[in-house]
Amino acid sequence: MMYSKQIKFVTIVLSLLLLLFSLTQNALIVNYGGETKTGASFDYFFMGAIAFMGGGLFEEIIWLANPLCLCAIIYFWKNDPRAISLSLLASALAVSFSFWSEILGAESGAMAKIISFELGYYLWISSILILTIGILIHYKMTVKGSLQS
């Protein structure tokens, strides 16, 4: 049981540290209007919450991975199994973004071509995947431990 608590603690801390570090990095390089622009993770993280106001419904849906992770962490801390589904959903959203070729470039609805995903994106997705894997390991150990008792 003690090992399970350590997994929980390490999972949450590592996930949050990776998320915080990702915010210091660039997330994307896009081409908008013939000009190449680098997008900071910090900007995407905070502007994502209001993306729908600029017409970015799909961008808003991807951004929802962040509050889903926060809820998953809270549920995980409280030993609520809903953490599993929330983290899996957040992982699916974050991974699905890697298949995008364009992102909203302006409030006018003009799209920007994604040239490359940068370190900030990969750290962000890693933080979510680590959270998900840690939650799955924790609950697998918990179920296995309760079956052996």
Radius of gyration: 17 Å
The string of secondary-structure elements, in order, is HEEHHHHEEH
Total beta strands: 4
Rounded to the nearest angstrom, the distance between the terminal CA atoms is: 11 Å
Report the mean per-residue pLDDT as an integer: 89
According to CATH, what is the topology? Butyryl-CoA Dehydrogenase, subunit A, domain 3
Domain module tally: 1
Quaternary state of the chains: single chain
Number of helices: 6
* Residues in helix, %: 55-70%
The CATH top-level class label:
Mainly Alpha
Main β-sheet, spatial strand arrangement: 2-1-4-3
Strand content: 15-25%
Keywords: Membrane, Transmembrane, Transmembrane helix
Transmembrane segments: 50-76, 83-101, 121-139
Which features characterize this protein?
149 residues, alpha+beta, Butyryl-CoA Dehydrogenase, subunit A, domain 3, 4-stranded antiparallel β-sheet, 4 strands, 63% helix
Description:
By secondary structure, this protein is α+β, with helices and mostly antiparallel strands. The chain has a single domain, classed as Butyryl-CoA Dehydrogenase, subunit A, domain 3 (Up-down Bundle), CATH 1.20.140. Helices cover 63% and strands 15% of the residues. The chain contains 6 helices and 4 strands. It has a 4-stranded antiparallel β-sheet. It is elongated. 29% of the residues are buried. The mean pLDDT is 89. Keywords: Membrane, Transmembrane, Transmembrane helix.
